[in-house]
Fold:
Amino acid sequence: MVVRRRRKTSPLRPRGSVTGRPGASAPRSDHTPAVGPDSSVAPALGEVGRYAPVDTGGGVRPGHPLADERGNERLHAFEQGFRDRFSELVPVLREIHSLQHEKGFSERAQSLAERQLGIRLPEQVLEDAWINHLDTRRLYLEGSFRLFDRLVNEYWSGRDDLAAEAESAIAWFLDCDFHEVDISPCSDGRLLGLRRFILRLPDMAVRVKSYAGALFDIEEDVRHWTKRELLRFREGRPTTADVPSRYLKVAAYHYSSADPNHQGCTAHASCEREAADAALRQLRAFRQAVENTYCCGASVDTLLIGVDTDTDAIKVHVPDGETRMSLYRFVDSAALYRETQGMNEQDASLAVYRAIQDTVHQQGWGTGNGAPHEGMLRFISRLLMNNLSQLDYVARYHGGHYADVGHRERMIIVGQEVEEMQVRNFAYIAHLDTMEEGAESMDVGVNKVFRKLNVERGLPVPVVVHFRYDRKVPGSRERVEARCRRVRDEIMKRYRDLSEKGLIGCHMVIRDKRSGSQLEPLEA
Ligand SMILES: [Zn+2]
Structure:
């Protein structure tokens, strides 16, 4: 395998750029010394550095020495079970549709739904079928929502291991000097498996909140940072305030290696450079905000990760000794996988370590100022190793490359994350407290993704509005219920052209904030 150290030519166009301005400006990195006579022209992302990929296509086969095979089998059973349930919905509804003029239709339809999907459909819709026609849009919405409720509620049964798994992860984070790991990926459904599949981090140990284009809410994160500090100060959880551990904020942008100009991040017009740059700027702004508000920016670390949504490979942008990152300094796990797949376990682990060191000392574009702290290096190397397992998974079960390169989401989840829904491309996530602040994310989901995906075919857009309350706080449940209804009303109003035709429907669910609590659906 040939690994290119330096670009041979000066591409005028950043990879994935739609507009492709000639003479694109140099990266807004803090350390980008001039290289060569044409240093004003930035090389395309992915063309710099020892571990930049040479090609992004095949060459990845299953059986990597560092892959967690049993973990992969477990995840595959989970993913398959999940998809199978939902893939039955349309065939079952088709069959029900064809039965609508038969005798005993209602009972036959119910028993079919119960047998094939494990749910009951709304009686009234079936009963009313003789008046006009069967309202299949309603049935599609209701069927999706009931399957959703069922899968979420079943998720926790018999999974006592999840708490122990989270505890050991938190201990490991502390070992890396982090008392909190907070990740903001893009809302894109193809990143839905980020925590559980792509990075292999336990559900309950990591905070994940998604925003269109990974442009997370800085004010909200500063509030969360404050809350964590207060917990440390008052309760010594997970460390006392005098321990110099840090808050780690991770932003995850994404790109498509197979179709970079069309299947990248919708919020950034499929331009990888723009997506990465915007996320990096957001991370800097967050750090700055904490520093300006509390004079303690040093207690915040940031990390930028790029995800190739076609293969689940990641680019980890390694911070330097001054915690700064560059779009041009990263380790690409796909290249690492290919380079190490023929090695034994020990050599492969060493190669991961070497790859990080080489990136730290990379010259030319993206040169940094020294290495980050030891904990960060440990954290990055674990993330890369975890991701090698995921690449093995994609190689084994998806031929190294997902068949559904584009959007294939089945619903939009609005409000707060549903940690049980971590299957790639299953849902579009719009994290928000009010529609006012979340309108942008929601518009991308409805107008750019689901109008094409569902509405053009006459299928409605299922929207789950999900919020958590705190049962220890008086009145919390009532307030959260009211918020849930408010958001639902605003969605129906905002997309009136769809709601009037029954082409969008909301399902409201609330639940206690403890992990593992059951959903409480609200009556419309
Ligand atoms: Zn995106």
Q: What stands out?
A: The pocket of zinc ion is lined by residues 186, 188, 213, 254, 265-267 (CB under 6 Å).
